[in-house]
Amino acid sequence: MSRKQQVPRPGSDLGDDDTGCPILHVDMDAFFASVELRERPELAGAPVIIGAPGARGVVLSATYEARRFGVHSAMPMTRARRLCPQAVIIPPSRGKYTEVSRRVMEIFHEITPEVEPIASDEAFLDVEGARKRLGRPAAIAAMIRARVAAEHGITCSVGVASTKFVAKLASQHCKPDGLLVVPAAKAVEFLHPLPVAALWGVGERTERSLARLGIRSVGDLARTPVETLRRELGPAAGTHLAALAWGRDERRVTPHAPDKSIGAEETFVTDIEDPVRIRREILRLSERVAARLRAGGHAGRTVIVKLRRADFTTLSRSRTLREPTDVAQELYAAACDLYAASGLENTALRLVGVRVENLLPADEVARQLSLGERESGWREAERAMDRAARRFGRDVVLPASLVPPPFDGMDP
After folding, report:
1. Residue tagged active-site, from 116, 122, 281, 287
2. 338-396 pLDDT, tens per residue?
3. Contact assessment for residue 200 and residue 33, using Cβ atoms and an 8 Å cutoff
4. How far apart are CA 131 and CA 133, in angstroms?
5. What is the CA 98 to chain-centroid distance, rounded?
6. Pairing of strands 179-181, 156-161
7. Minimal CA–CA distance to 100: which of 329, 338, 346, 390?
8. Active site residue 122
9. What is the pTM for the complete model shown?
10. What sign has the CA pseudo-torsion 403, 406, 411, 412?
11. Rounded to an integer, what distance in angstroms lies between the CA atom of residue 319 and that of residue 338?
12. What does the alpha-carbon distance between residue 263 and residue 282 come to, in Å, rounded to a whole number?
């Protein structure tokens, strides 16, 4: 587990009084790994790591059996293998995770429109408006856990509290496959024994600054004068942490937070210099970004290409299109032009990325054809590909240049 997740279990019985606790934080347990294990039940109970197996890969997810060895997400795969050499490594299947995430979020939206996704595997819900129809918050949380397990074969943990901050901590405490209610009247009792690193906004640097003041627990911080915290951490950070230490969090669940950008990038196992292979990767990324734009009902106007050289220096180039688009071929054409203009066409690259900004609802985009211009048909073709992908899997229909060659029995 990460430093932020290393928090002790509650030291006393908090009870189950969910009065005044309409906020739920639902967090899928080892999400990517759990999705993979549905198809690999023989690996249940084994240490499993999801991530690219190459030297430059990173851990995307790990089962709790692997986490006991110190493996956690975002860790370099080389270090994860040293910590847990017996782990089974499974390459990621991103389209599969996206589809399961979408269906789980549909369960949440059937319960309440007040859903705030904060990642593909977690969300806040405000269930105050669902009480008359579905019962108390704790009962709703139990129903969510039961439905996710029954319909998708994976587990989730749910924290129930009066604020978003405490609900998120509660879900961490009851992992995996648990439910924890933190009664509003006992939020301070729950918080004060925790290490100060449990607070949002306390990174390693802030933790060191607080340790110099003798502040190691949330209770220590709560008992420190606010002026001392402001002087040490700055006015905003000091005020923010002082409020959290007493369980005060005024932020509301914000549904339908608009995406600011949509992108995808790939780090290569070995550096690639061949412009043909780079353009093929740009096409693959453009396809992925365009599919995400269409899935979210977006179109974007600004295309950005990210290029990282072997020495880790990174260059970004952008272009604003005449009209917003959700078509991969249009993103690809712009991205290739930016790659050609970058001066790096014959330079070895370790990473390539494509991102789209300046998003707006796709149904508000009216494409204006120039005199004599014909519709290319790409938009309709790509939407047909989306339908096929939803039914048969993301890689069932691909551009010809992305189809791998047939195996001929010879080494490549």
Report:
1. 122
2. 999 999 999 999 999 999 998 888 876 655 544 444 455 566 666 666 565 555 555 54
3. no
4. 5
5. 10
6. parallel
7. 390
8. yes
9. 0.68
10. negative
11. 8
12. 12
